[in-house]
């Protein structure tokens, strides 16, 4: 307790030195924390922007670099036959035309896609109404399910349930609306705005009864790769080996996202590491600049009867107070900056406030800064406390 | 020499030698110093540079240990003590006054004076109360909240004297106490020393200044690590 008071007295007596080391700590710690929070928020935002594609579906399309060849298209009958492959529940033709749609007096550009009665076709649960029933699929009924985005565009003011939407020339009744995706980056949404029963979709948008792309609904996600391979080879056989096909699913997306994520994580880590080192050197610098003065001070203290341990304890307490206050304030400032930029700016990219592992950033930055401060705050005392007091007094 | 009992002796040196070992090089600084300083004496230790004067001061001040010989401070053998024990001796028995004042910068006079009491483990209130008394004794009672930079050289040295005396040491040891002061202020400090001497303090001043030495009642002169003269200055003889 006595040491604490004495340390506080010394700190307040040397206001400039205290303020400078405190500033170094605060800037260093807050910068590292803010950078880490922002980095993680950014990577989180990046992984969050791929969505709208159900885990239970995959897309099959010709392996072609220069657009699709007519002969690569698969007939609806052939698509039906794919359902004999194990693990496939349903295979439907797929495309996603963008059309001008109208609901009442509102018009909007929407993407239209096919779906079945199975809820696994959707990546989002229902918000209102119901999904398309099997009867409606069988009948090719003119009903549709809207995505949250589609509903918002066609009827910004309120509920669109039960209303009729005219997608291109096709009028259909809205039976359900999906929930908003957890991340709102609509630019990268692979889902459609208007989901029609695939039978209805075939009739209106695939008059040639052929499709380049096939959407496959599977039963067991664990076997998705096997099923994809089976579909690919079945189609290649169907085309007598002339064309090959490739598949696209959420796992592919996840891999893509992971690659971006890893790159970003590396960059963020390097930047945070550099700022950690820079702040460490800053703190070190301020603490070591006062070595001459402090060595004389230690000489005085020892001459009047301070033991080595007492001098060390006092310097340690000073450094500990600096560390505690500096790291505390730095942490608060860092979290505040990170939180502010996260909520103000990054939210506009990803659509949500990404949860960030701020705790680990705080721990890392604080531990590092604390170690530096304690080490270099006590170092002059450690060196000078061993000197003969007279030598310490003459130290230049 | 007189045969008064050891309890009366503030300092007793017996055949003190000091050899500085710098690697293989051995530099002898003191070749066997013996003298006794009684309580209440006012002694000046003089000598040209290189005479071993500073070495002797370090030994008397318990800042260093002799290579051989015995040093009794206030009746206690301090010649074989380790660093921490020496620190404790400095704290209880020794008051230092330096040429360069050596006050803590940006720390007011009161706290500077109270500093030894901190290491002695006194509670803060008591420390500051005692420090205030000590400052009043050196005539700086109204300056207790001034920082060293706001005090004149003479005032700073008086603060240093107050700090040296706060633990009621057996010996007040001064190293060129007026070296950084103009002659008038220097005289004031020496007057303060004389006053302290009259009140019974044991004072040892290490100096090369004959004028300063004149204030002392006894002068021990060193040359080449040996005592060459030890004179009691008879006040009347001096004037006569």
Description:
The complex is a heterodimer of chains A (396) and B (240). Chain A is of the alpha+beta class. Chain A has 2 domains: 2-50 and 255-394, no CATH class; 57-248, no CATH class. In chain A, 55% of the residues lie in helices and 17% in strands. Chain A has helices at residues 2-13, 15-48, 76-81, 134-139, 148-154, 198-205, 224-238, 250-289, 291-303, 308-350, 358-384, 389-394, and strands at 57-62, 74-75, 88-94, 98-103, 106-115, 126-129, 143-146, 164-167, 170-178, 194-197, 210-211, 213-218, 245-248. In chain A, the strands form 3 sheets. A 6-stranded mixed β-barrel of chain A has the order 4-5-10-7-9-8. A 4-stranded antiparallel β-sheet of chain A has the order 3-12-1-13. In chain A, a hairpin with a 2-residue loop joins strand 8 (164-167) and strand 9 (170-178). In chain A, helix 9 (291-303) crosses helix 11 (358-384) and helix 10 (308-350) packs antiparallel against helix 11 (358-384). Chain A is elongated and about 100 Å long. Chain A starts with a helix and ends with a helix. Chain B has 240 residues and is an alpha/beta fold. Chain B has one domain: Rossmann fold (3-Layer(aba) Sandwich). Helix content of chain B is 35%, strand content 28%. Chain B has helices at residues 53-60, 83-93, 109-120, 124-137, 153-165, 183-198, 210-215, 235-239; strands spanning 9-22, 25-38, 42-46, 68-73, 76-77, 94-97, 171-175, 203-207, 218-223, 226-232. In chain B, the strands form 2 sheets. A 6-stranded mixed β-sheet of chain B has the order 6-7-8-3-9-10, sandwiched between helices. Chain B is globular, with a radius of gyration of 18 Å. The two termini of chain B are 26 Å apart. Mean pLDDT of chain B is 89; it is low at 1-6. Classes of the chains: A alpha+beta (396), B alpha/beta (240). Chains A and B meet through helix 1, helix 9, helix 10 and helix 12 of A and helix 2 and helix 3 of B.
